[in-house]
């Protein structure tokens, strides 16, 4: 059976929210999307530094002008979130945040229920 294709068009009056809402299931944000735009600083967070450093190493090879910073962040508790915020605010290399993306899901892809 042939797959059906649904064609959707957006006119000049369509706003970004409408487009993002329509394509939400297909949108996957990867840190490389940000690194490729040559930000001054890219802060990557995670609970396990070795996993984040692996990502930083790969991106550093492709985008060497970017300054990468690892920030330990465990959103399973409010204390973990506060600790990360305090650490980030004390980091002179990060005077402000332009974009903040939070991937709030469990390791198996399940959305994390309201824990904070």
TrEMBL record:
SUPFAM superfamilies associated with the record: NAD(P)-binding Rossmann-fold domains
Domain of life: Eukaryota
Family annotation (Gene3D superfamilies): NAD(P)-binding Rossmann-like Domain (3.40.50.720)
Protein name (record): Ketoreductase (KR) domain-containing protein
Organism: Cladophialophora psammophila CBS 110553
Lineage, opening ranks: Eukaryota, Fungi, Dikarya, Ascomycota, Pezizomycotina
């Amino acid at each position: 059976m042939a797959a059906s294709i649904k064609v959707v068009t957006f006119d000049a009056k369509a706003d970004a929210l409408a487009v993002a809402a329509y394509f939400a299931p297909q949108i996957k944000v990867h840190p490389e999307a940000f690194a490729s735009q040559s930000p001054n600083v890219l802060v990557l967070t995670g609970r396990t530094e070795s996993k984040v450093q692996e990502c930083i190493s790969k991106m550093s090879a492709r985008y060497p002008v970017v300054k990468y910073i690892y920030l330990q962040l465990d959103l399973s508790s409010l204390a973990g979130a506060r600790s990360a915020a305090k650490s980030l605010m004390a980091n002179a290399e990060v005077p402000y945040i332009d974009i903040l993306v939070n991937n709030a899901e469990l390791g198996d892809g399940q959305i994390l229920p309201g824990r904070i």
